[in-house]
């Protein structure tokens, strides 16, 4: 074959050979080919990978096996159990204990109001207990006139607010903000009353009683306050100076009722009228009686005078 381009025969034959038999061309590998192979190796040997990770972190912290963490968990569990027991002792259960304080009847409400206003006729102030399922339990208010309840305190609390607002309206001094002001003020006095009595029982190291009992006895004063409001705005102008005598008598009646009712809480007695707690000395007994007098006469008297003005 002749060379049309004028090249040498050796060069021209080499070019023709390359055109007839092309050399294979090799492309560069993809960048992620190594990563793909590495992922396949990880899928084929997962156990070896986890073992290698553990070998890479031999000092990794284990929370479950740490003694300090176990001790903290034990303290937290103990604190939760103690707080739960405290709530059960002082508040009880909503579905169980609170129903006890609303088991009232019409005859009980009528007799209880008369007992608050005229307590001198009552001879026995001890509560009636019954033994059911081997546990001593007190009878509900519907079966025991001396049992505390929450129906009369709550209803008298609401009646006092409505009655006071009604008398203000009759005097031409009513405005809508009166309800909020009176409700907040009355609630503040009630909370202060309960806190004072609870702190006094704690300082005197008395037996634990439920908060419902304290709220109940602290709320009975609204019965006397309602009576004073009615007397003041109806026949108070005709009584003159004798009105203050009526105020004094109602305060004394409420004080006698509270002292005789709370006596079995501050100084619990058994059937023979002897003190159950033999650790109470004569000095401690005297201090408890003084606290009972201050709370029932002075504190309740000041609150009644202020809220019935």
Describe this structure in words.
- It is a single chain.
- The protein has 309 residues and is mostly helical.
- The chain has a domain at 101-307.
- The protein has 13 helices and two strands; from the N terminus they run H-H-H-H-H-H-E-E-H-H-H-H-H-H-H.
- A two-stranded antiparallel sheet has the order 1-2.
- Helix 7 runs parallel beside helix 10 (221-234), helix 8 runs antiparallel to helix 13 and helix 10 packs antiparallel against helix 12 (242-266).
- It is globular, with a radius of gyration of 43 Å.
- The relative contact order is 0.08.
- Residues 26-39, 41-61 and 271-277 have low confidence and may be disordered.
In short:
The chain is mainly α and 309 residues long.
Radius of gyration based on Cα positions: 43 Å
What is the element string, with H for helices and E for strands? HHHHHHEEHHHHHHH
Largest sheet composition: 2 strands, antiparallel
In percent, how much strand structure appears in the residues?
A: under 5%
Question: Average pLDDT value?
Answer: 76
Beta-strand segment tally: 2
Instruction: Determine the fraction of residues in helical runs and give it as a percent range.
Output: 55-70%
Based on Cα principal axes, name the global outline: globular
- List low-confidence stretches: 26-39, 41-61, 271-277
